[in-house]
Structure to design on (901 residues):
């Protein structure tokens, strides 16, 4: 019987580049920037890394295919290197590869690095891409905002909210992320905005305005993982461990079966349930100190509060407006600014979420450090990374905690 | 004389958008000496995702009583939705068929889900293509049922007389052995072939070149049409005074004079098509006939004329099926005004609009895939699981129902004639769309199953969750780099 990943793997070093429109940087620059920080944090020699995973999504517009861009940018010593891609869950997928390799005993120290250079496409928003040779012949040429905006039309109808009421809760989410990012020097969008500005922003895809959408950013993030025993042997006193790492892809039900109502992600509740069980969390509302979720659009974060079991069905708008997920609320969400304001370099995002939780657990989050439920700092954090669109997606949920001394 | 050919059913499709001629005149007033005189009426204009082929499909669906056809394009209401035996042959008549070398009629037959044994033919290059097809059917002895469908979507130079007078539309007639419930019987025909050029368009050219109206009327049509009519009526032993309805697709000032020269000044001419739709080219004679049949009585005679380098003259007797026949009235009533002349020009390729870099997307078609999936894409056939009954699109090897997941249990199931409801939707201003915003969302089929689909013929603010929709065959994408067009089905709100 498999026993899961809980506390089998420790994170000994993390790094994250500054996110933003990095006109002067290519993907190799971003990788070197994130890796340098992680390596210094881990305090090991580069050549102790035995295997590496690269996460990058839009390979056509930046690195090109394969894992070679990572191996070459960091001049890794010809170690096994693998490229993974699972839509916007790519960063967490890279981490999963490295964590599983260590847990399997295949190697002692592994690297996971996610990178995305989006601002070489020549226009705003995400690049166009094929959905598949058959899919292109029948599916609409949808955009990311258009795909996620539909959650709002369906959610409002299902739960009886007027669109202006729902939009106000969505605007609170965007306002919160800007407030949080103002405290984060690595965030892409650090300006404070008002709820009224969000509501008055130009339309992108009904009912989303431009300020309901996350930043399109360049960036990289990475993690160096090993066993708890090696982490201790390296002299680490506080050790962050992986408590749970779950990945749940759609199997087509949302796309083709009438059982899905279009108001939420079918995959996230499954991933959350499995992750809570793996991590030994009985009551997530009472145990999680902070969460980082896939807030690609304001409405996504809103429905995810229900999909993760943190708000009751139909109640997320009220909980959001009550401040439950604000920085000083019961379960702070996106204290680093989230995808919305830290930015969303796709391949890096899952690792960026882990990076913030890692910093918070170690008490290294600077101006934005949380006190946690105990008042002595957060003890457990969750990241949720979603690839794809509500119709078909990949949900990943990771839980991180501190190993008992 | 040949056996009478029955017109068994009829269908019309007039695209939803109507452009007021006064709006054209206003936009182009700087080119006109009589700028202050506003022309009357509207012309029908196809949406950006319609062409002669999709117009024909919609008219044919109505003609065959397919359940998915719009209320405005159906056959007589008494028999709308009734199962109709598939025609043995389909004849597509158009001067603007999208493919010069690819069987357009096969594409129509596929969208109509007709059997593979269906004979197809394509006729064009004259405004009397459709009347010529009817003459051929009559002379073949009327043993088989044929679907004669005609449509045109002709370009005109902005502000030209043709820009005002042309209209986009399609009409379809199901013909075969006459019987109870026929709309009319074609009794006799007479044709004249004569290279009288009132207008022309060489292959590959975009616009028609029109000759002087007075010469066309006073010299050409005033001699050719009376000659054909006299020959027809003499042969049939029918006096001009016995003709109660004249289906003559000509501008009113010309039609009046030509009718008088034929001794047909007392015959009724319906002007609604000219007023609200415009001259639909190859479809015009059929539209004129359908207009006449709407107010004809059983036993009356109708004279149908097709004109284009000669004349086809057909004599018809009205039958009992015309009771309650009103397809054209419904089609003309379903319009919505297009308020932007520049949008119309852009959709015809007459104004180059900056749609941004997203419009540069490569739309190459993997033809091996399109062939493999042709039934699903062309006829909108999904699957129904024989194990659990779940309907799904696309048809996959493994059933989508999470409680079933049986392998290789899917029987073909056509969704084109289903109804659906809007489950989710958005109006996307970021995506490239020829008619922004790009509107799409999840549609749930009445019999189950869900598909993310594009909506068409919809205005911003018009959709709502739960709104009923039907499905229409439209242009999906244009591959400009390879000059190819591909089609798929879209959802459109059911007319109130």
């Amino acid at each position: 019987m498999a026993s899961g990943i809980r506390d089998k793997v420790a994170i000994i070093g993390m790094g994250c580049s500054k996110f933003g429109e990095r006109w002067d940087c290519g993907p190799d620059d971003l990788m070197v920037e994130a890796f340098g920080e992680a390596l210094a944090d881990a305090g090991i020699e580069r050549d102790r890394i035995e295997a590496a995973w690269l996460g990058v999504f839009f390979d056509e517009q930046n690195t090109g295919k394969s894992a070679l861009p990572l191996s070459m940018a960091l001049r890794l010593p010809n170690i096994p290197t693998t490229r993974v891609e699972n839509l916007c869950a790519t960063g967490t997928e890279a981490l999963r590869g490295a964590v599983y390799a260590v847990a399997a005993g295949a190697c002692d120290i592994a690297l996971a690095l996610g990178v995305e250079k989006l601002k070489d496409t020549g226009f705003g928003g995400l690049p166009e891409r094929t959905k598949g040779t058959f899919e292109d012949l029948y599916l609409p040429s949808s955009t990311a905002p258009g795909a996620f905006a539909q959650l709002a039309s369906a959610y409002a109808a299902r739960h009886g909210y007027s669109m202006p009421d729902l939009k106000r809760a969505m605007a609170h989410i965007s306002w919160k992320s800007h407030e949080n990012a103002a405290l984060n020097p690595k965030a892409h969008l650090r300006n404070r905005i008002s709820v009224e500005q969000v509501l008055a922003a130009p339309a992108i895809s009904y009912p989303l305005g431009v300020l309901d959408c996350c930043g399109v950013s360049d960036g990289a993030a990475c993690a160096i993982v090993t066993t708890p025993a090696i982490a201790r042997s390296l002299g680490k006193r506080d050790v962050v461990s992986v408590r749970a790492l779950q990945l749940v892809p759609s199997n087509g039900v949302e796309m083709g079966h009438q059982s899905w109502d279009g108001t939420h992600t079918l995959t996230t509740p499954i991933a959350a349930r499995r992750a809570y069980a793996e991590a030994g969390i009985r009551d997530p509302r009472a145990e999680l100190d902070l969460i980082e979720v896939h807030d690609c659009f304001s409405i996504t974060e809103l429905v995810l509060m229900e999909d993760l079991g943190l708000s009751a069905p139909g109640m997320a708008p009220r909980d959001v407006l009550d401040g439950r997920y604000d920085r000083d609320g019961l379960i702070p969400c996106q204290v680093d600014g989230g995808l919305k304001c830290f930015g969303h370099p796709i391949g890096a995002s899952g690792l960026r979420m882990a990076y913030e939780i890692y910093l918070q657990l170690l008490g290294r989050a600077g101006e934005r450090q949380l006190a946690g439920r105990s008042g002595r700092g957060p003890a457990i954090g969750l990241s949720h990374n979603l690839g794809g669109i509500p119709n078909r997606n990949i949900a990943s949920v990771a839980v991180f905690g501190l190993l008992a001394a | 004389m040949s056996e009478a050919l029955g017109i068994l059913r009829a269908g019309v499709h007039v695209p939803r958008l109507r452009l007021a001629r006064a709006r054209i005149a206003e936009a182009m007033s700087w080119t006109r000496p009589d700028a202050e005189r506003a022309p009357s009426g509207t012309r029908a204009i196809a949406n950006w995702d319609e062409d002669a082929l999709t117009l024909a499909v919609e008219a044919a669906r109505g003609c065959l009583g397919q359940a998915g056809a719009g209320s405005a394009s159906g056959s007589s209401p008494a028999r709308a939705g009734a199962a109709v035996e598939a025609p043995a042959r389909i004849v597509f008549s158009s001067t603007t068929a999208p493919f010069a070398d690819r069987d357009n009629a096969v594409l129509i037959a596929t969208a109509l889900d007709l059997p593979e044994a269906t004979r197809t033919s394509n006729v064009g290059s004259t405004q009397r293509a459709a009347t010529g097809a009817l003459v051929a059917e009559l002379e073949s002895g009327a043993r088989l049922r044929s679907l004669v469908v005609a449509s045109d979507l002709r370009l005109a130079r902005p502000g030209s007389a043709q820009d005002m007078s042309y209209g986009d539309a399609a009409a379809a007639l199901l013909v075969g052995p006459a019987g109870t419930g026929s709309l009319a019987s074609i009794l006799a025909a007479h044709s004249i072939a004569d290279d009288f050029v009132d207008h022309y368009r060489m292959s590959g050219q975009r616009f028609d070149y029109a000759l002087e109206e007075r010469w066309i009327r006073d010299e050409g049509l005033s001699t050719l049409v009376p000659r054909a009519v006299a020959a027809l009526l003499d042969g049939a032993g029918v006096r001009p005074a016995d003709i109660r309805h004249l289906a003559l697709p000509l501008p009113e000032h010309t039609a009046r004079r030509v009718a008088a020269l034929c001794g047909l000044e007392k015959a009724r001419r319906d002007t609604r098509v000219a007023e609200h739709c415009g001259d639909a080219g190859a479809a015009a004679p059929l539209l004129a006939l359908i207009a006449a049949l709407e107010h004809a009585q059983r036993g009356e005679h109708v004279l149908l004329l097709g004109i284009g380098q000669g004349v086809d003259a057909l004599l018809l007797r009205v039958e009992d099926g015309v009771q309650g026949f009103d397809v054209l009235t419904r089609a003309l009533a379903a319009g919505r005004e297009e308020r932007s002349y520049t949008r119309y020009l852009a959709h015809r390729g007459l104004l180059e609009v900056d749609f941004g870099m997203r419009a540069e997307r490569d739309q190459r078609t993997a033809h091996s895939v399109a062939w493999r999936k042709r039934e699903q894409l062309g006829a909108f056939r999904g699957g129904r699981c024989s194990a659990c009954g779940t309907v799904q699109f696309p048809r996959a090897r493994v059933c989508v129902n999470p409680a079933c997941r049986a392998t290789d249990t899917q029987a073909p199931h056509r969704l084109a004639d289903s109804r659906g409801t809007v489950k989710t939707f958005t109006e996307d201003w970021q995506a490239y769309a020829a008619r922004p915003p790009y509107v799409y969302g999840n549609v749930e089929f009445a019999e189950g199953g869900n598909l993310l689909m594009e909506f068409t013929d919809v205005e911003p603010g018009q959709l709502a969750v739960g709104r009923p929709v039907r499905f229409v065959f439209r242009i999906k994408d244009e591959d400009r780099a390879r000059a190819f067009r591909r089609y798929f089905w879209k959802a459109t709100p059911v007319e109130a």
